[in-house]
Design brief:
With about 575 residues, the chain is α/β, with parallel strands linked by helices. The protein is built from 17 helices and 29 strands.
Amino acid sequence: MLEQRYRWKNKHLRMHVSVLDGTISPTILLKNATYLNQTFRKWMKAHIWIFQDRIVYVGENLPKHVENCEVIDCSDQILVPGYIEPHAHPFLLYNPHTLAEYASQFGTTTIINDNMPLVLNFEKKEAFSYVNDLQSIPTTMFWWCRFDSQTEILHEEEKFSHSNIKSWLEHESVLQGGELTGWPKLLNGDDMMLHWIQEAKRMRKRIEGHFPGASEKTLAKMMLLGADCDHEAINGEEIYNRLMQGYMVSLRHSSIRPDLPDLLDDMRRMGIDAYDRMMLNSDGATSPFYEQGVTDQLIRIAIEKGVPVIDAYNMATVNIARYYNIDYIHGNIATGRVANINFLASIENPTPVSVLAKGKWVKRDGVKVEGAYPQFDWEPYGLKPLELDWQLSMDDLQFSMPFGIKMENSVITKPYSISIDVSSDELSTDHDESFFTMIDRKGTWRISTMLKGFTSKLQALASSFSNTGDIILIGKSKQDMLFAFNRMKEMGGGIVLVENREIICELPLPLAGVMSSLPIEELMLQQKTLFAELLKRGYAFNDPIYSLLFLQSTHLPYIRVTQQGMYDVINKTVLFPTIMR
């Protein structure tokens, strides 16, 4: 697909002007609309003319011709701009297409996405083809450009080569570099990463940080090196420090860190009442977290916590658009903007009754508009069910390491000394230690150790979902682990729980073994079943999907299992290399 350099061609712009001249009818006329005018920071009355995907006029006048126009009296509704999600990880078992469709029902019509799954699971040509083809759906999809893999992968220099990074940064749909999970490398002298940051800034694109627990001095250094925003503040003091150093602060509320109510309480305690340099994000929550809403849920929390109503809406709309330099086309209801509009029953209720996305109805009078998001054919992009042409054997499940991995919470892992006998094929359910194996999806290497704290009674879990798409096996029984692996392989990828050679629960992931093709509503049910079965078997943390995802993630302390081996995050060394099979 050829890239279109401009959103609207000259002939389209002439047509837009012709609507004002009265020679062409608008396609939609919203009469007597009470809407949020973010220039005046007021609720104002106007008539809104829409032609195809663009707002062509907002004001007191009515068009001369409406014969080919859908006319709607909005006297009893409140109109706000479509919401923007600035920090999406669209691969948490769902995929970008299903996330966009689901989020649209809650008024989120623009999403800024992590490109990590596209870098790791697509060839570059297919990735850009997919990004371009997604422009045809009603949701507006923007992207980040990652600078590192967030783990220690083999041949990282190929996936994150200079030419690949440059190609991503130059793409019109990419708004920022980052998030900078590899920022310690930058501080330690990684000039290639600094060059990529410089390139992003030259292109007037933003840099998203990832600075959990960063000191004031570190925040200042990262600002000097090019960072613009950070989403890792977990209390009022950290928000204050970021604002003082000139950052845009992205307030997070996600399945792994549901922080927003406490953050807003802390801000009130500290007297922080200026919101123009803040935005809201849900940081790639897993699907059950979205059951009560997406961005609308965050706006509701802000309003309930006493944030001025207009500021609450602005943090999900125009603040984000201004920050990313796209407010000339997104984030507000004004002439020339894309027609992304939410229709509310009341100002205090941000969940829309109806939604326009790119001038198309995706929700109408509380009902989803069927067919607005056509089914996606994934074959052209190379995403198909996982095909493993190798066999797993009991020999692969041999454990001899002197230490294992202890889970402190959903995502933090520490080393611990193994004191139990791990030579048998089964472990007792009297403790919370399990066998753990990660195997290359191509079957060339493996690493085996013990995992403490994940569950106490889980006999076997096999997962093709992981940071890098490699296979994870966890359990008390090696025979059940083997059974679970074979079932996962037969499914073409997914997550499988097994007990006494019987399948307890399975969640198919037919898109390269890392994403589901189901609508999010159906995926939610599968995830709830998976969560419930893990809870029965002793899982004690917030989110098992993130636990699986972050076992490899070297942006978190303290020890990780990577493609290179057991990795000491603090000392940046491989403690035990992977074993070739």
